[in-house]
Amino acid sequence: MPQANVPLLPHSGPWRTIAKAATHSDPARRPATFDELIALIARELDEPAEDPTNHGERLLAAIRSGDPTGTGQLVDLAVQHAGHYELYLNVLVQLGHDQTQAAVAANPSAMREIVRGVLKLDSGNGVTLEYGDVDQLITWLLIVARHAETCSEWDLLEDTADSIFYLDLWDRWAVQSDISAWMAGLSGHAASVVAEALRRNPESRPHFTQLATNHRVDHRIRRALDG
Question: Domain-by-domain residue ranges, the chain?
Fold first, then answer.
């Protein structure tokens, strides 16, 4: 039964902390308002949000095990955390061609949000991209770009090209050869989209001047490289 000045507290667990604070013998040390009490309960009872990278790694494992819903869930997660360094470098770039193609075909607008997030990876978030990170990202973005072209998703191709040329400022020779091979194979509207992206990213153009004199390269790409 209740006794004067003897608090009835749970033996252990989060409710002990809540009850002890709410029934403290000194009123000045109790939560003073309803909002303070709710905040105290939330601190003790609410589970912390799962780290996006841990969640992404679980989804990646499910995708590799054949889960048909995993790719869509991963895309949704990446949209919610666009520009999250570890999620991109530990999870997204590990997606294979088939899974990336499925993501582009199923939700191109979401993939646009994700590729635009690349521009945030090194923008005042306390993270500095390493050369190996840049290589992995460009390699993955080229997969996205090729599938965007196949699906005629021109807005996605435009955003992906901008992200590729943004990363190209790190001047990575190995992946520059991959970018060159990709641009050399473009034609039609895809070449027009990428040519405009080149014009928006003039710092990247000097890395691909050899294409300007290659007459097998689409004329729109060559003109963009000529400035």
Answer: 14-45, 52-226
